[in-house]
Amino acid sequence: MSTKEFDVVVIGAGPAGEVCAGRLAGENLSVALVERELVGGECSFYACMPSKALLRPAQALAEARRVGGIRFAQEAAEGAIDVAAVLRRRDEVVHNLSDDAQMLWIEEREIALVRGHGTVAGEREVRVGDDLLRARRAVVLAPGTGAAIPPIPGLRESRPWTNREVTTAEAIPGSLLVLGGGVVGVEMASAYASLGAKVTIVEALPRLIAGEEEFASGQVKDALEAAGVEVVAGTKATAVQRKDGVGPVTLELEDGRSFTGDELLVAVGRRPRTDALGLEELGLEAGKSVEVDEEMRVPGHEWLYVIGDANGRVLLTHMGKYQGRLAADHILGRSVSLRSDGRLSPRVIFTEPQVAAVGHTLQSAKDAGLNVRAVETPTEGSAGGSFVGRDAPGTARIVLDEDRRVIVGATFTGVEVAESLHAATIAIIGEVPIERLWHAVPCFPTRSELWLNLLEEYGL
Amino acid sequence: MSTKEFDVVVIGAGPAGEVCAGRLAGENLSVALVERELVGGECSFYACMPSKALLRPAQALAEARRVGGIRFAQEAAEGAIDVAAVLRRRDEVVHNLSDDAQMLWIEEREIALVRGHGTVAGEREVRVGDDLLRARRAVVLAPGTGAAIPPIPGLRESRPWTNREVTTAEAIPGSLLVLGGGVVGVEMASAYASLGAKVTIVEALPRLIAGEEEFASGQVKDALEAAGVEVVAGTKATAVQRKDGVGPVTLELEDGRSFTGDELLVAVGRRPRTDALGLEELGLEAGKSVEVDEEMRVPGHEWLYVIGDANGRVLLTHMGKYQGRLAADHILGRSVSLRSDGRLSPRVIFTEPQVAAVGHTLQSAKDAGLNVRAVETPTEGSAGGSFVGRDAPGTARIVLDEDRRVIVGATFTGVEVAESLHAATIAIIGEVPIERLWHAVPCFPTRSELWLNLLEEYGL
After folding, report:
1. CATH number of B156-268
2. Which residues, in sequence order, are bridge partners of residue B322?
3. CA-to-CA distance for A114 and A273, rounded, in angstroms?
4. What is the dihedral of CA A414, B102, B100, B306, to 10 degrees?
């Protein structure tokens, strides 16, 4: 057994761990980064990145068609989407599941990459195989999450796809069942439908993406249905049948219906990868989210930080990275303050229409006891909508705190609204008074004039 | 002669006049809106709107090509851009130069539309033909600007195109000379090149779009040249030759060179349409911009407002509309404050790359005596750049006031950056401290993560 010493040991080289390690190394701390799989994590190889690669071509095509004036291949022949090319591009985006491209970044920062499974061996100690890594300052856990497999009879035995298989598939099945109508479910239903699969999506709650504004759920459902997806909401799956875990798979529902497809994607939530990290030694519960304080530290263990999905605060790559920066700053002795967190975090669902939201929905604001009013305008209802997202319906809603006269929530749906969200995020986090926002003039003819319509609607 | 009385008389139904009239009518004031041409103005029929219709198809096509996975028509045949379809779509956007579609809006607000040429006839009086319109409260002038024709020998006789002809052309000429490398010049050079014309652009200043960051000028120049446009900067035109004002037109330059094309666009600035408004009667100079105070009133004539291009503060549709809202509010007795104005206004140039800017450039901030630092990042340099604007170079720069710790300027260049600008506008107008901006987390994987890169580059 060899023992090595570092200022900080980080377990998990997904986005949160990478950002934390990089920020510490940038301040000349010695950092060990422990990873048992691919450097870059779930997000880079099996989630955000490949899913966007699968979604984007059909959306760019749809937008180009709406714009008009462009000639496409005769669709009678083989269709305007080149599925093989889309899958090749996806392979490029995930670097054919190699993390070689990450090594330059690691080397430039002189981070010690340790390949293997890291476990906490004691205070400020991490074991990786035969090596013991001692941390002079802190240990940061960023193990992430894996797909949860709910205890539905026959489900596990049916060898369902998770986010990993659905994002890295080498061919598009003829039909796909999707269990779960959250972000992963609706994005993959949208992508696979655009690539030629017959898709059925089953959600137990009464509506898709149930945490978002109701109009967003409705518009995404309508668009999925228009793309040929069968949407079944408000009913639970009770059993899965698949002979020997291959071939056609059948999903049985509590209402008596059943659906059969070539593959089944299970996308009903995430499970923290905290089951084999040695947390029991510290009196913490394995396999659960690890509670942390606002500095991302585990109460009672001031040397131990948990960032990203595994602390259960919010399951979003950008928020994991944010937490990675906060933890690094705290380790560096800087004062930190958590100003964006949990369900109120900015978020984008890359379906078509896209759903971009930050802060409260109208309902969550009311539930939080705020005195709020919501105003709406069609996303494409300004002059700018003549050129981008034309005739593709969307809604922009802001939720205003009538007492504090600031925006506390915003949801934009429509074509290509992802980059429009940051204006709302700055308005909310910056607590810019709405009377001042009125003077932030959106350019003509951009769709950002929806801000003008919203504030006029509010009465400014 | 008949006399009619209104609360407010507005001359000019372009965007500024329309917005002002609409806002007043919305508060139940009686409003006369006088227009001698088309309701909707230069912007709707001969500028912003048709120019975007001409620019967008080639940009949507270029983006779809960058995304990959889409099959286009064989270009060997007739090209992927359907020029006739683009022109038809442009005609749709300008409603075939009819303002009928505006009438519903006018009628709903019970605005009295008066067709004809309005002139100020005395205090609170406007004459339109045989009618005298009396204003109980105020007269608002929103006459706009027309293309300036500089005194270059032979230019006027050559019957050059202005913004009107170039945006409404029924066919694309084989070659187009563009005199002036400002916004109109570069946008139309870009559009016409994409539609098949051989374009030459001549600018007297050393660089195109000279008021913007130098990198923006360079990138737009490179892109125009890559699209086959010949860019000639830093040399003045000295004469124009065109026999009888038809056929080939030749532009002679001071450096001895000359260029010949099928048409010549003159785009070297604007001239306020204040020459036949009766301003001499009030002791004001006709044909010049009319100076106004921060409430948009003409000093010495408290009943007279001038909004939009004609007051010379800033030549942008959205700023004219903003001034229209301010003037209306002031007429309604509300307190108003001008917080966005002049060269610091938000602005977008819809070339490819687009140039979206607000507030100071680094140079203008230094010239204003501010203690600033600029930081930059590639616009497409984040994970989001893998999916939008891939391999299409752009630059994001923010200019930070080191004393006040706020952003005072931002310029984004790249593919589809127009909607990204409003985040910067809110940050600047909201005077959000940069330490707070650090907590406005951009979503992964959106290109808005450039904000993260910029603030990290600054040292946060």
Report:
1. 3.50.50.60
2. none
3. 18
4. -130
Chain B contact for A57, CB < 8 A?
yes
Give CA torsion, residues B89, B94, B100, B103, to 10 deg: 120
Chain B residues lying within 8 Å of A71, measured CB to CB = 72-73, 78-82
Structure tokens, A446: 């951009």
- Considering the four listed CATH numbers 3.30.565.10, 3.40.250.10, 3.40.630.70, 3.30.390.30, the one that applies to the domain covering B353-458 is 3.30.390.30
Query: B206: exposed, middle or buried (C-beta count within 10 Å: 0-12, 13-18, 19+)?
Result: exposed
pLDDT on residue B76: 41
Location of structure tokens 């926002």: A437
Residue A101 touches partner B, C-beta closer than 8 Å = no
CB contact under 8 A, A67 and B60: yes
> B384: which chain A residues are within 8 Å (Cβ-Cβ)?
418
Q: In this structure, how many other beta carbons lie within 10 angstroms of the beta carbon of residue A238?
A: 15
Task: Say whether B334 sits in a helix, a strand or coil.
Answer: coil
Counted across chains A and B, CB pairs separated by less than 8 A come out at 252
For B296-354, write each residue's pLDDT tens digit.
Answer: 999 999 999 999 999 999 999 999 999 999 999 999 999 999 999 999 999 999 999 99
Query: What three-state secondary structure class fits A424?
Result: helix
Q: Is-contact B16 B322, C-beta < 8 A?
A: no
Question: Which of B426, B435, B460 has the most A C-beta neighbours within 10 Å, making it the best mutation to test the interface with A?
Answer: B426
pTM, whole model, 2 decimals? 0.97
Which residue of A60, A386, A429 is in closest CB contact with B70? A60
**Exposure b/e, B56-69, CB count within 10 A at least 16 = b:** bbbbbbbbbebbbb
